[in-house]
Amino acid sequence: MFGWAVTFLVIAIIAGVFGFAGIASTATWIARILFIVGLVVFLGLLVAGRRPPTT
User: Fold this and answer.
1) What's the angle, vertex CA 50, arms to CA 5 and CA 44, rounded to 5?
2) pLDDT digit string, tens, across residues 5-55
3) Per-residue H/E/C for 1-55
4) What are the residue boundaries of the structural domains of the chain, listed by start?
5) Interhelix angle for 21-48 vs 2-17, to 10°?
6) Under 8 Å between Cβ of 13 and 29
7) Which residues does 11 contact at the CB level (< 8 Å), separation at least 6?
8) CA distances (Å), 2 to each of 18, 22, 26, 35, in order?
């Protein structure tokens, strides 16, 4: 989830540098939403005490 957020943030920065304001604002919005969702999922799993399965 955080990887996608960083990807959209990089897209927003590149679009902003080249002057594509609409694309930059949309990519920034998507990055922000993905970051918040990832953070909520992380905190939920932290509170629940779940651990990833071991192989």
Assistant:
1) 50
2) 889 889 888 998 988 888 888 888 998 999 999 899 989 888 888 666 777
3) CHHHHHHHHHHHHHHHHCCCHHHHHHHHHHHHHHHHHHHHHHHHHHHHCCCCCCC
4) 2-48
5) 160
6) no
7) 23, 27
8) 24, 22, 17, 6
